[in-house]
Amino acid sequence: MPFLSEESFTGLPPFPDDVPTAPLLRLSLSKLLAHDAEEEDRLWKACCDLGFFYLDLRSAHQDVENGHANGSNGHSNGDSNGHANGSNGESDEVSIDGESMLREADQLFEVQKEFFQLPAEEKQKYDFADQNTYFGYKGIGSGVIDKQGTKDRNEFYNVRTISPLSPTRS
Prior knowledge:
The protein is built from 4 helices and 7 strands. The protein is of the alpha+beta class.
């Protein structure tokens, strides 16, 4: 599956010229993982100035162990059976592959297209309103946007994710 780029979204209408936009920086994950000082400075400024940025995942591939990036010659401290030194015998190493992340995002775009084409009755089966959670489906008109009681005009499916770099939550 080819990677999507700005040019891939041909079905979108042109963005209006009279709508204000924010100049977001595009930061390179690969440079950040390599501890590039200039890119780290750009990240700091983006977070302090606007609080938002684009993260370019292309060409990013690193192995991360115990929260530190290792290059292709990185190694883990472990026994001869490949186990990391730790109390549970499990490795803390995580591989970050930006190209793979982009492919997975493209697959999710296809899944969401299929989901939102389903009939409203089918999507309602996944509604989160009565589940005491914010994860699941929210249908059009289920929210009020002003004092006059105007219903919203958006729908979404919120998915819970747990980063492989963060502690697992139960």
